[in-house]
Specification:
By secondary structure, this protein is of the alpha/beta class. It contains 14 helices and eight strands. The chain folds into two domains: about 230 residues, Vaccinia Virus protein VP39 (Rossmann fold); about 40 residues, no CATH class.
Length: about 280
């Protein structure tokens, strides 16, 4: 079975050739040219929410773990940061080659390092920010990766891991893998229990500050927009309050926070997204 599996690049190429997957390709930022996809990400609600969380540290020196095509590296660099894009895959489609293409077009200050997160080739106390977008669940050793992230962070630095796949119980993993758009092709997906993420971060000399559930932040529920989320809240309220009042109430941030927490606590979809924010003491 493993001999017939595609590489990650081949799997993404296959996805891009499926006419019925165009929307998925667009929302995953797999479309070309890569600098246009990266620019779109830098203007997304997801990225703007990341900036709000990290504003105290920007601009600064950033390690982008598992940088992939470099869309986050681009966004950080465009914000004035000095960025190291850590990406072991050399691919021109989904790896270091794509990041180099971004650098060639934009001249942004991004350094590419082809290495894995469990063996970071940097001294202690190097970075203001260690960031990973959908990276931790790919770790061969989750705890070791978190410890390495902590080691290279400066004291007082911030660790942000976004859009990590979570399962409620180990039996749910196969359900998530079976539903994933590409896992059947390349076999590289994974998910952990929420407690496993929390334990790995908390045991790595990092102080876990916030855990955002699937509907606590647009970081997790994107590509659904904040406006669409507000409409979802309003649709549940209008049966009691009427449409006009329901939509008025749904605009309040504290209402969105309340329902975000409520929807998150009710969700048990295998592979749902969580985000983790921690600091190095």
């Amino acid at each position: 079975m493993s001999d017939s599996r595609l590489t990650w690049e081949e799997a993404v190429d296959w996805l891009r050739q499926q006419p019925d997957k165009n929307e998925l390709v667009y929302h995953c930022y797999y479309d070309d040219p890569v600098h246009e996809a990266a620019e779109r990400f830098s203007q997304s609600e997801e990225w703007l929410a990341v900036v709000r969380l990290l504003k105290k540290y920007l601009p600064g020196k950033v390690l982008d773990l598992g940088a992939g095509r470099g869309i986050s590296s681009y966004a950080f660099a465009k914000s004035g940061c000095r960025v190291v894009a850590l990406e072991p895959d050399s691919s021109d489609v989904v790896g270091a080659g794509a990041i180099q293409a971004l650098i060639d077009v934009t001249n942004l200050p991004i350094e590419i390092v082809q290495e894995y997160g469990e063996t970071l080739p940097f001294p202690e106390n190097t970075f203001d920010v260690v960031y990973g977008r959908a990276v931790l669940h790919h770790a061969n050793d989750l705890q070791k990766l978190c410890k390495e992230a902590s080691r290279v962070l400066k004291p007082g630095g911030v660790f942000l891991a976004t859009r990590e796949h979570v399962i409620s119980k180990h039996d749910d993993l196969q359900k998530f893998l079976d539903a994933h758009a590409l896992h059947f092709l390349y076999g590289g997906e994974n998910a952990y229990l929420l407690d496993e993420y929390i334990s790995a971060v908390s045991s790595s000399a990092l102080e876990l500050d916030k855990v955002f559930g699937p509907f606590d932040s647009v970081i997790n529920y994107s590509p659904m927009t904040q406006k669409q989320f507000m409409k979802r809240i309003a649709s549940g309220l209008k049966r009691y309050l009427g449409q006009k009042i329901a939509f008025w109430i749904a605009q309040f941030r504290f209402i969105q926070h309340f329902y975000g927490h409520r929807f998150s606590s009710m969700s048990d979809v295998p592979g749902r997204h969580y985000t983790f924010l921690a600091y190095k003491a």
